[in-house]
Amino acid sequence: MSKKAVSALCEKLVARFPDSQAVHSAQDQITLEVPAEQLIETCTALRDEKDFAFEQLVDVCGVDYSDYGNVDWTTERATGTGFSRGRDVVEEKTTAWEKPRFAVVYHLLSHSKNQRLRVRTFADSEFPKVDSVIDIWSSANWFEREAFDMFGIMFEGHPDLRRILTDYGFIGHPLRKDFPLSGHVEMRYDPDKKRVVYQPVSIAPRINTPRVIRHDNRYGGESLPEVKEEQQGS
Predict the structure, then answer these.
(1) Would residue 10 count as lying in a domain?
(2) Which of 57, 77, 119, 126 could link 137 by a cystine bridge, Cβ 3.0 to 4.6 Å?
């Protein structure tokens, strides 16, 4: 979408949905933030009205904002994420998230107008639940089941809301921020019972990200002082 088309669509959205908020995001895309109680009405209008004509639902995904804005370290010589974090620590930084913890994001496509739109609605933090859009876009069926499985978000009105990626007896929702990286249970083959059995996970959680980055002069740049000292000592 061109910048002109993005601006025009944004103006139409603001005029049509005064209780919602249309926000420009990266790569000239638009996110329409919709109150949960108006989700079905808004999505129906986005599909049927000629100014929008979003015939296809491309994807539905859940989001857990419980750790949004939290950074382990603020650095000067390195980024705040990935393997380059943790060098030249300045201070810890935490940005409070004031909106509900869970959100559902819908990615829409209009073939007739060659336009894309992202719709986001928030769900209650304690018992996340939103209305299903399966009667508007049938492609929402498996997408909503995945969001339910991974995030525990309930979709009111879904005809067959059950897990789709994890096992039948799986405990918890793997993409929630508070879900342990090692999980709750593990499975193994029991030679006595001659079948697969489940047991409490035996792997202790660990952090694989190094807190100090040691530059290697073989790939350009000088080694850090502590590296030179170690090399001399050895």
Answers:
(1) yes
(2) 57
